[in-house]
Amino acid sequence: MHHAGCTTNISDLHARRVLGRKEYRKFVDFYDRSVLGEGIHCLKCGSFVNLPRDGDPMVQCPYCAYRWCVRCKCPWHPNIKCSERADVEVEEWREQHGAQRCPGCFKVIEKDDPESCNHMTHKSTDVMPCTRERTDFCYCCGVEISPDYPHAELDKSGTVQKIIASINSPRRKNYN
């Protein structure tokens, strides 16, 4: 590798001897680009991969065959725009851990205590704020509910459908 106008090349062996680890990595990156052309490191194996010349956003590593989108640096998602792509890994984690999405802003919410009430309240003042002022929902099914207790589920049209709850104790018969 050489500087513009310089006729001497620095060998990999010399660069490794005089450069620190961070500087050597940068040297290798520049060397790869000067020899191989514009590229990116594979997100899976780290090998240098040339960028497609035709402007195609899909990149495939010739070493491990991993395919990803050069625009969003995520696994390849054919026929879906980067902005419309749901994060597959987060969704898999959410399903494995039983977490729910807030019906107001669709952020993933995980319950701290499995023994606590399933009435969840996501507010605009929370650490991970809701886009609404307040969204109440059932942690079991993810359906939006009214803020007052006992729970009443809200359907998409906003009408209230009372849940048949076991809160009402069965009528006791007087055996005296």
Name the features.
two-stranded antiparallel ribbon, 2 domains, 176 residues, alpha+beta
Layout of secondary structure:
Layout (H helix, E strand, L loop, with lengths): L11 H7 L2 H16 L2 E3 L6 E3 L7 E3 L6 E3 L18 H10 L2 E2 L6 E2 L9 E5 L10 E5 L13 E3 L5 E3 L14
Antiparallel strand pairs: 1-2, 3-4, 5-6, 7-8, 9-10
What's the story with the biggest beta sheet?
2 strands, antiparallel
Query: What is the CA–CA distance across the termini?
Result: 100 Å
Could you list the spans in which at least 5 consecutive residues all have pLDDT below 50? 156-176
* Average pLDDT, all residues: 77
In which order are the strands of the major sheet placed?
1-2
Number-wise, the strands total 10
Work out the helicity level: 10-25%
The total of helices stands at 3
- Quaternary form: single chain
Strand content: 15-25%
Pairing-aware structural class of the strands and helices?
A: alpha+beta
What general outline do the C-alpha atoms trace? Answer: elongated
- Work out the radius of gyration: 28 Å
Number of structurally distinct domains: 2
Order of helices and strands: HHEEEEHEEEEEE
Explain this structure to me?
There is one protein chain. This protein has 176 residues and is α+β, with helices and mostly antiparallel strands. It folds into 2 domains: 12-83, no CATH class; 92-162, no CATH class. It has 3 helices and 10 strands. The strands form 5 sheets. A two-stranded antiparallel sheet has the order 1-2. A hairpin with a 6-residue loop joins strand 3 (58-60) and strand 4 (67-69). The longest helix has 16 residues, at 21-36. The chain is elongated and about 80 Å long. The N and C termini lie far apart (100 Å).
